[in-house]
Structures are given as C-alpha cells and as structure tokens.
Amino acid sequence: MNSFFKQFAGHDLSFILKRFAELFPFENLDVLNRYEQEITPEFLKEKLIDNQRGGLCYELNALLFLTLKELGFDVQLTTGTVKNEGVWAIDHTHATVLLKQDGHLHLVESGFGNRLPLSPLLLDGESVSSPAGTFRFRTVTTEKGTLAMEQLVNDEWIVRYGFSLEPVNWSELTKMKETIHHDERSTFTQAPVIAGITGGGTFSIARDRLRLKWPDRSEKIVEFEHDNDFLKEVARYCSPSIVKEAELYLNTEFRDKKRNESKEGDHK
C-alpha cells in the first residue's frame, strides 16, 4: 500500500479528506451481496484500493485511519451512534476517526454518506462548511456519549452522531459489520445506498432515484423508471467495479424473487 499512501504525503488534512471523498463513495453493496469478510488492513487494501470500491463507515474510516497513521498523524478509531430524524440508530455502529494535533482534538470523517465536512473539525472550535453543509464537533452530553458531530439544518444545530473517546480494535469493526449485515434494525439490508461528492455538490443514488444537492440548498431529483436507469447513474458516478456489484445485486434479487414465487406455487 506504500504507493497509495505516498500520494497524500506533504498534503494537509483537507486535501486528504477531499481526495478520499473522490476516491471512495459510500455504498452498501457488500451488505446486499452478503460478503462476510473480516475487517482487516489486507481486506481494505483489496476491496477499496485494488478493486476501486467504496464501502460503509467501518471500511472507509478504517482506511482513513490507516492512511493518517502511516503519514505520521496521531489518530485513533472510535465508535458512535447515529441519530436520524431525532431517533438513535443501533448503538455503536458508526466508526469514525479522532486526531490529535498540536495538543488539540479533531474529528476527521470519510464514512458518513455524503454528509462530509471535508476538513478536520476542531473540538469546540469553529464550524466547517463543505458542499454537504455546515458541521461542527462539540463537547455535548447525549445518551450516547460526551462528544457529538453536529450539522446546521434550517438554522438549527442537530446531532448527527454521539460518541465517547474509547478506542476500538479491528475485531470490534468486524462485529460492527456483522451487526449491520444481520440485525433486523439495520437500514442497509433492504436496498442500495450509494452516495458521494461530485462537481461542487453531493449525489445519492437509491434504487428508484438520483438526488443531487448543492451548497445553496438547491437540489435535483431524477426518478428511475427501470433498473437500467439506476445502473446508468451508478456508472456515471462510480467505478466499473461498483457497477458490477450493483448488477450482481439486481440479478441476485431477481433470482431470489423467482425462487420464492416458485416455492409459493408449490404450496398452492
């Protein structure tokens, strides 16, 4: 992985975070296609770097952690709990990265969908804006810890996830992956989610639509009539390997549907 790390040497953290966002979209196709490999540095190299895939937080932020550590930064992985529409998700299923620099603590994030600050967030420091919005890192006591990443939404600061300072190891990342793959409360097991940064804005691709958003809060939604429309937009914004996994998901879903229909027919 040396050549991968070298491309970031000599650059500041904002450059690294922006480059990560360009290289690695947030996508859950491994969940849908039922890949169960353990989270290890070797797995991340093969999936993300060699095969030009994206991933979920426990993959994207784990690779960010490895990269920053290789570049000499003082970093640790930790886990938090996401809050959506005022409701907490499954406990400790968001992996993120904390960085200490010049005696100060920062949050660096590469695995939170397209809600990426693209710059380090200083604890209790100034907010940071990106195409995804405005973010800050605060000492905030919640049910899920004493720290929080917040986003400004409609002129109000809301908690996106809460966490504490406890570091995690690789086996805990694998347990997180297992939870996301198998827990009935997981939001990633039902349909594809592909998101990232593009052209000064953000994109998110679901099975039935493409959504583009820009910093001025304008947005465009394109509804899909067929699965080919979905694949066309995946190909527009993602690597061929991600397109291949999206095709596999659609084909597997079709086969499962036919198999279930056949079983129902046998019982009639």
TrEMBL record:
Transmembrane segments: none annotated. One of its GO terms (molecular function) is acetyltransferase activity. Pfam families: Acetyltransf_2 (PF00797). Belongs to the arylamine N-acetyltransferase family. Gene3D superfamilies: 3.30.2140.20. SUPFAM superfamilies: Cysteine proteinases (SSF54001). This is Arylamine N-acetyltransferase. It comes from the Bacteria. The lineage of its organism: Bacteria, Bacillati, Bacillota, Bacilli, Bacillales. PANTHER family: ARYLAMINE N-ACETYLTRANSFERASE 4-RELATED, N-HYDROXYARYLAMINE O-ACETYLTRANSFERASE. InterPro entries: Arylamine_N-AcTrfase, Arylamine_NAT_domain_sf, Papain-like_cys_pep_sf.
